[in-house]
Structure formats: structure tokens, C-alpha cells
């Protein structure tokens, strides 16, 4: 707790390697975030939703508590809306509303988006490139930057090859299928210049 017995809480929410952070609510012991986070779940059972609460400080943030929710229960019930007791602390509860959404094949659903949530998921299989140009006297050490909206992923670097093989998969949430585009840039790691843009 900070001066005056107040805290500046924020939450770190994660599923597997996907992480989100809430905004900080300053000087409040009963914060209301009203934030929405979207996650892709690849394995149920096997993945849990983890929430860690912290008190933001200028030097080191203090741990306030945590909780772990089995996603199998959320998948079964489709909607979970309840208060959860925090672990690793003597008091405190956290209210969460969790919704399990399944993929649809109905293309008309792609245009319905009043909520600000995603309407689609784009999965990109980045396989390989052929005959990349040399920007120096050697073969390029190339990597790819993939961007949809505000989300950018960077592939691994394939050193010194005109025919790099990445064999990687990237997944994007898409909010507007009509307006958002996939941008790809092939870059040389050592020269930091573009070898091509798509």
C-alpha cells in the first residue's frame, strides 16, 4: 500500500504465452477496470487463465494476489460471471466475466461488429521465400515483420540465405475484415533494410 493506505492496482492477465496488462487505477482499494482482453486458446484442458494483481510503485511493484481459472470450465459453461477469491493473500476478490467463443463458418458474421471485439482470426503460415535479392556482397540474413492493425509479429532470422525457410505460424485477431490488411516486410537483419514488401 502507498501513502494513506491506498494502492495503485493493475492486473496482468495471461493464457500460455499470451499476456495482457490492464491500466492502473490510482489510489483505489476497490478498482473497476471494465477492460476486455481477447485470447486464443489452443489446448483445453492444458491452458489456464492466470491473473496477477500488482500495486504500481516507482521502484518495484508490490504483489497483491493472484488467481488461476481452468478454461475447461469456461468452455463447458460458455459464460462465467462471478467473483473469485484471490490466492496468495489474506483478503481480496476479483470480478471477472469470461466468455468462450467458438469459430463460425458463417461469412455474414464477419460484418457484425458493434462491440469492438474481433470478428475473425487470421492464421498466417509463413513458410519460405525464394531468390531474395542481395543488398551487400553476401546472401541476406532475413526475417519477416507481419502486421495486422496494431499487432506486429517478427519471425526468426534465417542467416545468410537467398532461400530462407521460416516454417512459422502467426495468428491475428481481426476487428474489421473489410478495412484491415496484412502487411509483410522481408528485412535483412544485418543491414536493417527492406528486401521486399507485400
UniProtKB/TrEMBL annotation:
Q: Name one GO cellular component term.
A: plasma membrane
List, in alphabetical order, the Gene Ontology terms for molecular function in this entry: lipid binding; metal ion binding
- The reply to whether Repeat figures as a keyword in the UniProt entry is yes
Biological process, per Gene Ontology: endoplasmic reticulum-plasma membrane tethering; lipid transport
Keyword list (alphabetical) reads:
Calcium, Cell membrane, Endoplasmic reticulum, Lipid transport, Lipid-binding, Membrane, Metal-binding, Repeat, Transmembrane, Transmembrane helix, Transport
Q: Where is the C2 domain?
A: 1-84, 102-198
One protein family per Pfam: C2
Q: Which SUPFAM superfamilies match?
A: C2 domain (Calcium/lipid-binding domain, CaLB)
Membrane topology, as annotated = Peripheral membrane protein; Multi-pass membrane protein
Tell me where in or outside the cell this protein is found: Cell membrane; Endoplasmic reticulum membrane
The family classification in the record reads: Belongs to the extended synaptotagmin family.
What's this protein's name? Extended synaptotagmin-like protein 3
Source organism of this protein record: Mus musculus
Which gene name does the record give? Esyt3
